[in-house]
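Case study B.
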Amino acid sequence: MPLMKARVYVMLKNGVLDPQGEAVRHALGSLGFDGVEGVRQGKVIELDLAEGTTEATIEQMCEKLLANTVIESYRIEVL
Amino acid sequence: MRAAVVVFPGSNCDRDMAVALKAAGADVSMVWHKDAALPDNVDLVAVPGGFSFGDYLRCGAIAAQSPICKAIVDHANRGGYVLGVCNGFQVLTETGLLPGALMRNANLKFICKSVDLKVESSNSEFTSGYAVGDVVDYPVAHHDGNYSIDTDGLKKIEAEDRVAFRYVVNPNGSVADIAGVLSENRRVLGMMPHPERAVDEGHGGTDGQALFRGLMDQLVSA
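Model:
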């Protein structure tokens, strides 16, 4: 079956404190990397999909499972 | 009172929950996550703590899609009672039965200790055995217990007296020190601390007994 690929980026919404990103920022600072003003950590999810899967379907996947839209936003990239 | 305790792959407080419910006098059955229906005439569904599905994707996210969770949502929508503790609380927020979400603890550490909680509302079958302002000692054991809710959502649950418990000393960064939240009809309670681990002298404390006994008294007489 022919495949298409999509990539979903899931990030905490702006304004939601990201404790893991903050810890990474501190660690970069202690390694001597100055000027790291902010770090946000998210997820990348790669999907192998049947050819012809619509972006609307991928959006449903995000809404129903891949992201928790209470705290997370997502962006879909069809490759 | 007939109670069902849900078991997911990775649940680890399911039997403790069953023991606590039985000790309070409930008739308890265990249900598997693949079951599509709850046993007949169940009054209370308990969603236990643990690491359902290895906490993959997000804590509780995969469990919330399991067949039994559809039955739990139907049960709640019919006015049934649901108690979610720890991972169970995470599952209930993922199903949408409770507002908000549980994020990684603010200090990024897994916290395993006893904490003091203040009873904020006794206006529910779960908390009727306590008085507002009572301080109870329950264990917590979680990595993702940092309760998050948007400003409007917070205003709403505060105005509706739906914060059941607050931490006396906030261990995990939760908004407004929230440790437990009730649904709009007050019949669904989610909380990170473990009342079922505080029901026997051997646990080091029995402050959780009043939750199960209160529930039992209310649901038997109902």
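Chain B has one domain: 2-221. The remaining cases will be described in the next quarterly update.
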